[in-house]
Each structure stands twice: as C-alpha cells, then as structure tokens.
C-alpha cells in the first residue's frame, strides 16, 4: 500500500464556521468546498482537515453519522508561548489555559464555533524519552 495523502473528517453543524476559525486563527487554507463540505490544508500539516455537515445523506457509514464529540485536533508547534499570546491577542476564547504535563507536553486548548477542540502542543522534553 502507498498512502498518497491523509485527512481527518469531522461532522459539525456548520462546516463553514469551523473552516473560517481554522483559516483565521490557525493559518489553514481552503482547498475545496461544496454544500455541507469544506476541505482545508496547510503545507506543513501533512494532512487535510475536512468539515462535513452533520446529517448529510451521503455520509457513510450510517453508524458514524453524528457530531465530532470527544475528539480534538492537536498541532505540534515550535513556540507554544508565542502561539498562546497570539491566539489570546486575536480574541480566541481559551478553553484550557496553558499548562505543562509531567511528561513534558506543554499545551493549551481552544474550541471552534462547533465545539471542536483545537490543541496546540510543544514538547518540552523528547517525547520518546
């Protein structure tokens, strides 16, 4: 098998609102959009983020149709403190203030308009250690 690209697809009530949030605050660009569908990317992310409108009749499998509950998008960054200050200056509500876990993960979380949690992370120690 050869994987040529990767994506994560999230079911949300308003795909446009989630897409605009990632574009405005996290530097994603829109690759394509249609009714109930928006695909975003960043050249440095390595995958696309796709927002699908909850309840689309074309969504398969039926058992997975629903909201993106219990899921978060995590992006590893080089300077977590600078990103925290930038996001706060942009007026984004912080859902989890910046903190450092004992294993070296320093992170904070925000939520998009549909409640999808966006987590920015910087490893303060080698995660393999």
TrEMBL record:
<dbReference type="InterPro" id="IPR029068">
    <property type="entry name" value="Glyas_Bleomycin-R_OHBP_Dase"/>
</dbReference>
<dbReference type="InterPro" id="IPR004360">
    <property type="entry name" value="Glyas_Fos-R_dOase_dom"/>
</dbReference>
<protein>
    <submittedName>
        <fullName>VOC family protein</fullName>
    </submittedName>
</protein>
<dbReference type="InterPro" id="IPR037523">
    <property type="entry name" value="VOC_core"/>
</dbReference>
<feature type="domain" description="VOC">
    <location>
        <begin position="2"/>
        <end position="123"/>
    </location>
</feature>
<dbReference type="Pfam" id="PF00903">
    <property type="entry name" value="Glyoxalase"/>
</dbReference>
């Amino acid at each position: 098998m050869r994987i040529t690209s990767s994506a994560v697809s999230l079911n949300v009530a308003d795909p446009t609102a989630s897409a605009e949030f990632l574009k405005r605050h996290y530097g994603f660009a829109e690759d394509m959009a249609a009714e109930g569908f928006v695909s975003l990317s960043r050249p440095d992310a390595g995958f696309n983020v796709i927002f699908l409108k909850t309840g689309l009749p074309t969504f398969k499998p039926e058992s997975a149709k629903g909201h993106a509950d219990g899921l978060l998008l995590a992006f590893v960054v080089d300077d977590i403190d600078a990103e925290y200050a930038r996001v706060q200056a942009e007026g984004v509500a912080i859902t989890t203030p910046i903190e450092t876990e004992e294993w070296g993960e320093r992170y904070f979380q925000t939520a998009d308009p549909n409640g999808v949690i966006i987590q920015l992370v910087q490893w303060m120690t080698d995660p393999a250690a």
